[in-house]
Design a protein that fits this description.
Layout: E1 3-10, H1 27-39, E2 46-47, E3 56-65, H2 72-82, E4 87-93, E5 107-115, E6 129-130, H3 137-144, E7 149-152, E8 167-178, E9 181-188, H4 195-207, H5 215-222, E10 237-243
Parallel strand pairs: 3-10, 5-6
Antiparallel strand pairs: 1-3, 1-4, 2-3, 5-9, 5-10, 7-8, 8-9
């Protein structure tokens, strides 16, 4: 049976995350409902990343299997006709039958955006974290380099599961300032639950001078979530790209 690969973008503001939940709107439910409208079949889809409530995506990848004679363009147009305005299918591909959006992924790029100025934003406020106190982006970037590599990231995981492997290979973590905006890019083979947001919250404390850049290495080594900073709010985070 053929496999369909969708690349989605969505604003997660009004959703309780990607994964289906009882009596709460989710992105997965919206996508599966659209597929049902198009095909008259009940299909379960798999996503590369299970984004949390309020988290966005520019390059979420979804896969499912179905025997349907439609072109990529027809799939895209038909699904978008049945999806809400804050979810869009950007591309449709027909990979090899064994393709799996989650298990075949080799790396994911997340980006966290911070607006660092005194006035609160009126535009795009659901897509960025407003931090009004000045941040030292250079110190934050210096601290970030202590996290590069393959490590146990338990200090930056919320709600760990008993059998989950805490080892992740974080290949890139950068903090760049462009005017009033800070952009934190994180690329790894995999991420633990709310790992990026926990890292961002810790780096912001470095940016405010509450921690030294060097202290981040000790936080990582402690493997204790209580030692790290607060979890940054979800609205600044987006899943940018998934590599296969």
């Amino acid at each position: 049976m053929p496999t369909i690969k969708l690349t989605l973008e969505y604003e997660g503001t009004h959703y309780a995350g990607w994964q289906r939940q009882l009596n709460q709107p989710t992105v997965q439910e919206a996508v599966e409902t659209a597929i049902t409208h198009v095909t008259q079949q009940t299909i379960s889809v798999v996503a590369a990343g299970r984004t949390d409530a309020g988290v966005h995506a520019q390059g979420q990848v979804v896969s499912f299997r179905i025997d349907r004679d439609m072109t990529a363009y027809q799939w895209m147009m038909a699904l978008n006709a049945h999806l809400p305005p804050d979810i869009s299918v950007c591309t449709v591909d027909f990979p090899l039958p064994d393709f799996h959006a989650r298990y075949k992924a080799k790396g994911k790029l997340y980006q966290y955006r911070i607006l660092n100025r005194s006035p609160r934003p009126a535009l795009g406020r659901h897509l960025i974290w407003h931090v009004y106190k000045p941040l030292d982006a250079a110190a934050m970037n210096q601290a970030a380099q202590h996290l590069i590599g393959s490590h146990d990231f338990s200090s930056f995981e919320t709600q760990p599961t008993e059998n989950e492997d805490p080892i992740c290979h974080l290949q890139r973590l950068t903090v760049l300032r462009e005017g009033h905006e800070l952009r934190i890019d994180a690329y790894a083979d995999r991420f633990l639950k709310q790992m990026v947001r926990s890292i961002v919250g810790t780096l912001v404390e470095v940016g405010h001078g509450k921690r030294t850049a060097e202290s981040v290495a000790g936080i990582l080594a402690a493997r204790d979530r209580r030692i790290a900073g607060k979890t940054a709010p979800p609205q600044g985070l987006s899943l940018i790209r998934v590599d296969y």
